[in-house]
Amino acid sequence: MRDDLREWRREFPILASTTYMISNSLGAMPRGTADRLAEYAHIWATRGVRAWEEGWWDMPVTVGDMVAPIVGAPPGSVTMHQNVTIAQAIVRSCFRPQGKRKRVVCEAENFPSVMYYYGAQPDLALHTVPVDELPGAIDERTLLVPISHVLFKSSYVQDVRAVVERAHQVGAYVVLDCFHSAGVLPFSVTELGVDFAVGGCLKWLCGGPGNGWLYVRPDLQALEPTFTGWQAHEAPFDFAPPPIRRTTGSLRWLNGTPQIPALYAAIEGLRIVREIGVARIRAHNRDLTQRLYETVKAAGWETITPDDPERRGGTVCANPPNAAAVARELLARNVLIDYRPDAGIRIAPHFYSTSDECEAVMAEIASIVLGRPRLRVTRA
Description:
The protein is an alpha/beta fold. The longest helix is centred in the C-terminal third of the chain and has 22 residues, at 278-299. The protein has helices at residues 3-6, 32-47, 52-56, 59-62, 64-67, 84-92, 112-119, 134-137, 160-169, 189-192, 260-276, 278-299, 323-332, 355-369, and strands at residues 19-20, 78-81, 103-107, 125-129, 142-148, 173-177, 196-200, 212-216, 316-318, 335-336, 338-340, 344-347. The protein has 2 domains: 3-29 and 277-369, Aspartate Aminotransferase, domain 1 (Alpha-Beta Complex); 32-275, Type I PLP-dependent aspartate aminotransferase-like (Major domain) (Aspartate Aminotransferase, domain 2, 3-Layer(aba) Sandwich), CATH 3.40.640. The strands form 3 sheets. A 7-stranded mixed β-sheet has the order 2-8-7-6-5-3-4, with helices on both faces.
């Protein structure tokens, strides 16, 4: 492990008792998050309803401004929401199909929740294709292109620029899902030219559940989402009857009362990721995932993870014989990973992970496959 990152391990209590290789699903909780949640409870207990005007009301924007530099977005362009599906629904609510332009085109490997949502829209037609066929499937019938930056099963890093270029040629809008890239892969939504981006703090940003986010390109801020609510009103405490008089800027992308406890929980992870820097995190993760990938290949196990490090996200998949049972035994041995059908065991080291831990995980998998007893894992 790089010496300049080892010091961060003490900030994550779970690392003292587990081998934590599941940051692509739920990032480890920073020690300071307990203090942030205690701060929330103290403010509620002592300030009561006054807390809204003393900071709570603006938290979807102020926490969004903490996300913005991590994903290369300008201040005031990111707002916080409960999850990515809701953020997608807000974007979709800005658009009405006109004539033949009613298609939603995405890769077949997209996250199911996103496809469930778009597939349930009665006035839209969801069209999915393999990821390598995506640009060619976008045409003048396409309204929205909700794509994953990094595919959740394989960890394949998609060629976003090619998709954006094709979509804009035919007048379609791109919604980039950055859930599996933000915090582990350096990128800029501004430089990529996407129209919208969504993601969350649950995984690589170590912010816990309930912390989805939405980026809207500044020149699109004037759009009017119909998935709206009182927080988007220019004078919400007038409690005026409809129609809504929308506020300006990023607040117009909000809706109902925000998820304040979750926003407090997100702060420490965002602070730490920003302090370390995503470029440093990527360099460390790339070293570890390369070791993991080479070990998987040497063992002869199947993997759908890309061979090219430039096209590989923060996760390596290992699919040994009886992978689901192996995954269950790993969990029983206090090695935290997850299993996905057609992918196998997903192993996701973060900046707080060590090369020794990566070697130990692979040794545990081998021992389970061979029917050998549990190994002793050393933690530093």
